[in-house]
User: Fold these one by one.
Assistant:
Number 1:
Amino acid sequence: MSAVLAPVATDAAAAAKPDRRRFIGGSDVAAVMGLSPWETPVELWEEKAGHKPPSTEIDLERERRFRRGHKLEPFIREMVMEKLQDEGLRVELLAVNQRYQDTEHPFLACEIDFELRLWGETQIGERIYTFDGTEVNADAKSVSGFARRKWGTESNTDVPIEYACQFMHGMGIRGRRVCLVAALRSFDDVDIYWTEADDEVIQAMRAKCVDFWMNHVLADVPPDPINFSDIKRLFPSDNGQRKEASREVALKIEALRVLRARRTADELDEETLAFEIGQFIEPASEVVYDGKVIATFKAQGDTRLDAKTLRQEEPDLFARYARTKTIRVLRIPKDPKPVKN
């Protein structure tokens, strides 16, 4: 990405909470690439294009995690700087929590947790890397629970792919060759990982981000779905019409029916089949094969408890704050006409 850059945010309010609909940031890149465990390209498009539904408990919990992570950043930063000094490096802190944008494409932006200037030598992967007043990006991560398994134990360059996307994006915008990652596993120590810039990867990510912004966000055209939930998001209502299935689709529906009938069904196989069938059905409400309905994908009412509001009010006001929305459910009859292989 462009090495020409400019700080973003001119006032404290903007610096504290930027409008994420106006740019693609480092934490968005993995979603654009289809590599995020938290968000699909369709969900990211909903957010950026202004189609995101009202906040849910999951959204609120994610925001709480982000806030906790920011509170830990000063602690992590101090620990990692002390550890670098203990390893014989000279360390200078350059900046904290600065945001930058690409001047060629201002909608590409990044926030760097902290930036350092380093002197000395350290091992990165299998080689010795020499710093000579080298400026590096640095990111602080709190690593706990199941997430610990995704971080390498034998190499200090093995970071989760979703974070590697973020770090490459930031190095591209800042024009730097190295990003230090401080992973806090406990309050006793911090692990140091390194990510080196890969120009080919950065350019490929840049092109994908530009395409996503221009041809999906600004054009208000959703990207292709990558799972069954995406299909339900893009087609929340059915059109009441029937769609004739090919033999291939009918076989997939039969396979899904069999899987669902088993208590030990493979969730991955079930999701894959539901996604492929949903892609075929999309806005239709029924699928027919050989003159018989073999699957339906109809919208129906869905009433759920608004837990956030309920916690703020009296329990007996539950009925007043219940919300009803329309959802689509893929149903397969228990005794359809069998499809021969």
Note: Residues 228-331 form one domain.
Number 2:
Amino acid sequence: MAAQNKVTLGLSSHRPEMIPLVSELMSKHDAIFLEEPSATGFDKMLSGNLAVREYLLPLDVEFAEFSQQMCDLLKTLKTEGKKIFQVEPFLEVLSDIHDFFADGHGPGEIEKDSIQYPVYLAEKRAAAALLTFYQAAAEGDFNETLRAVRRFARADAARFRLRDSLRSQELVRLVTEYPSAYIEAGEMHYPLFHLLLKGLPKTTRVKPIFTYQAALGESKGKGHIYGPGDQLTLLYIYHPAIDQPMRETILAARSLIHSKLVTKEELTHDLDLLPHLRNELHCNRLVSRLSLCDCRRLFSLIRRADTQTANRLVVDYLDDKDRTSH
């Protein structure tokens, strides 16, 4: 009987509060496959021959504290004998495209039958749709902004499908070399689980784990982590041709309000209280109470408000709505 490989798909957010849970999971596996492109100095950093801060400096990381703590964790895991790899083909190809353009080449010079071409198109379409959304959110009316949200979510979903497809092909080739493998992935990459199931041998056991569920169990919270914008994107990932205007529209409308409520900056204090997770769940619960009409009214009130003011306005609005309904 063939030996069974164990593969864990760890779906988690890039927040410092998730590091202890991720650490526990990673430590149980022989190999770790990170959701990031190959970076200069990575092996030197892991071996301690390059300071973490020096390694991160040219990378322009989005979440500085998370990246610092993750590198520290990876260095420890390396000393324990874990094999650690960076595997994110889409982002690597995208980086190559940027270098290609920096060398003076143009989009028309990208070979149509190369992997660069679909990556370029997916990124271009998503970036254009995002720009259109930003313009609509700043100056457009409510209906125009909703259409822009839906267009971007569809383009983003197409980009996710390509990104997960490319990564799954690479991972299928690599993970079976080890008795057990941990694959790092953001929560939006749950479809990667199905791609791995399809591509890996039947002797390989693949298990998805949402780290936020483990955190919720410990904090006695409840709910799911996906905001309405993420729900809309996942809907389009799994059902590209879906045509359910009411369902799509309410998710888009709630996402407009949600984006103004959720905390953007990285929280680094009281991590044992799970500040990001609690904030996301709180915002999800607020917007789940909003109708399309509610979102329309609130949009004009909070579109230019800061996060704190937007939260106060939405809470006050819902309190007033509760009082008048009784």
Note: The beta strands are 5-11, 31-34, 83-86, 180-185, 204-210.
